[in-house]
Design brief:
Length: 171
């Protein structure tokens, strides 16, 4: 198995208490997603066995197998947590995972103009935004039904409508 076959679901923060527990910031919909999708690995593909203990300020509190004190827990600070992509739930109703659309070509909805490539998906609380890089400069487009026409995964392409209003917004 390779790291490319996995997705980062969280990152270990500071120790919590004296028993070796750690705080985990989750990148899933909830803290439960960190352990809900099968085995958890670090970036060296070493298995990490976590047990959920509770929440503290929206961070999951976990024990790590064989880690029994604060000093040992401190050595895990900053470690990213990964699960196999194949274990993620199937999506419905046109939903996609971010990692499936990053790197896709962006085309206008009529297929006439190549607009660039999706570099990243951002979310600052008001919805998903695609960061698009192009030879005319980078721009951002909200991924809403009004602006996203459709995705063709077989062609590796996202078709956008209304892109003109976003392409020149910073000028």
């Amino acid at each position: 198995m390779r790291l490319e076959d996995c997705i980062c679901v969280g990152i270990i923060g500071s120790p919590h208490g004296v028993k070796g527990y750690v705080k985990v910031r989750h990148f899933t919909e909830s803290h439960e997603g960190v352990t809900a999708y099968g085995e958890v690995f670090n970036d060296k593909m070493e298995k990490i066995i976590l047990e959920f203990k509770g929440l503290s300020k929206n961070l999951g509190i976990y024990s790590i197998k064989d880690i029994t004190n604060r000093d040992l827990a401190e050595s895990f600070r900053g470690k990213k947590l990964f699960v196999k992509k194949i274990n993620l739930p199937s999506l419905t109703n046109g939903e996609v995972y971010y990692f499936d659309i990053i790197g896709l070509n962006v085309i206008d909805k009529d297929g006439n103009q190549n607009l660039g490539t999706i570099k990243n998906i951002l979310n600052f609380g008001a919805g998903d935004i695609a960061e698009i890089i192009s030879n005319k400069g980078d721009f951002f487009v909200p991924l809403t039904p009004n602006d996203l026409d459709h995705i063709d995964n077989k062609k590796g392409t996202i078709f956008l409508s209304n892109f003109g209003k976003w392409q020149n917004i910073n000028k």
